[in-house]
Amino acid sequence: MGDEKLPTKSSRDEVQAFLKKVAATPMRVPAGERGRLIFAMDATASREPTWDRASQLQGAMFQETSALGGLEIQLAYYRGFGEFKATKWMTDSDALLRQMSGVFCLAGETQIRKVLRHAVQETKKKRVNAVVFVGDCVEEDVDKLGHVAGELGILGVPVFVFQEGRDAVAEFAFKQIAHLTNGAHCRFDADSPQTLRELLEAVAVYAAGGRRALENFARQRGGAVLQIAHQVKRG
Question: Is residue 153 part of a domain?
Fold first, then answer.
C-alpha cells in the first residue's frame, strides 16, 4: 500500500516528542495486575518487511516489563479481503512470536476501524491500558475512524500510532486517532529497527507500569528515552 518514498533516517526530534507524549499520558495499573496492550498491525502486502522486523523485536516488550509485574499482549491484524483477526491474550514472547510467525501478508485495503472497534469491545470486557498500531496507509473515511477513536478516548484507552513512511493522508488520520484517544503519533524509518524497538519498549513499559515506570526505564537505558524523561520533569 502507498508508494511514498521512505525517509532516509528517523527524526530523533519526532521520536523524542513521541516518547515525551507517552510519558505524559496518565495511566495506572491496579496492584497485582498485569498491564494489557493490544499490538495491532497492518498485514497487507506492503507490510511484510516491517511485520518480519516487528516479529524479531517483540520479545523486548516482555523483557522490559517483567520486573513491573509483566504484560499481557494481544496481537490483532487485518489483511486480504475483509479479514481481521485477534489472538488470545499472551504473557510471554515465545507465544507471541509463534503467532506472528504464522501470519503471512496479503494484499487488501486498510481496516483500521475494525482495530479500533475491537479495542473498544475488549476494554469493555476488561481494562486495556494501551493500543499500539503500526501501519503506513489509510484508505477509510477519517470521520468514521474518528468516531470510534473518540469512544476509546472516553474509555481512557490511548492509541500510540507508529507510521512507516510519509503518506500525508495517513499522517493526518493517524494524528487524529492519537489526538482523540489521548495517545501519540510517530513516524519511523524502515531502515532503523532500533527506533522501532525503542518505541515498542517505551509503550510496553508505560502499559505495564505507567509514567513512573517509564521514567525509571529511561534512567536505566539512557539515550533518547533519558532525554525525554528529563524534559518531562522540567515541563
Answer: yes
Total domains present in the chain: 1
User: CA 173 → CA 11, 60, 197, distances in Å?
Assistant: 20, 28, 23
Q: For residue range 99-154, what is the model confidence (pLDDT) as tens digits?
A: 888 888 899 999 999 999 999 999 999 999 989 998 999 999 999 999 999 999 99
Residue type, 153: G
**Consecutive H or E run containing 186:** strand 184-188
Residue 202, domain member (yes or no)? yes
pTM above 0.70, yes or no: yes
DSSP annotation string for 106-130? ------HHHHHHHHHHHHHHS---E
* Top-ranked range on mean pLDDT: pick from 9-18, 188-197, 215-224: 188-197
Instruction: Please classify residue 190 by burial: count the beta carbons closer than 10 Å to its beta carbon, then call 0-12 exposed, 13-18 middle and 19+ buried.
Output: middle
Q: Is residue 71 part of a domain?
A: yes
Q: How many Å apart are CA 94 and CA 96, to the nearest integer?
A: 5
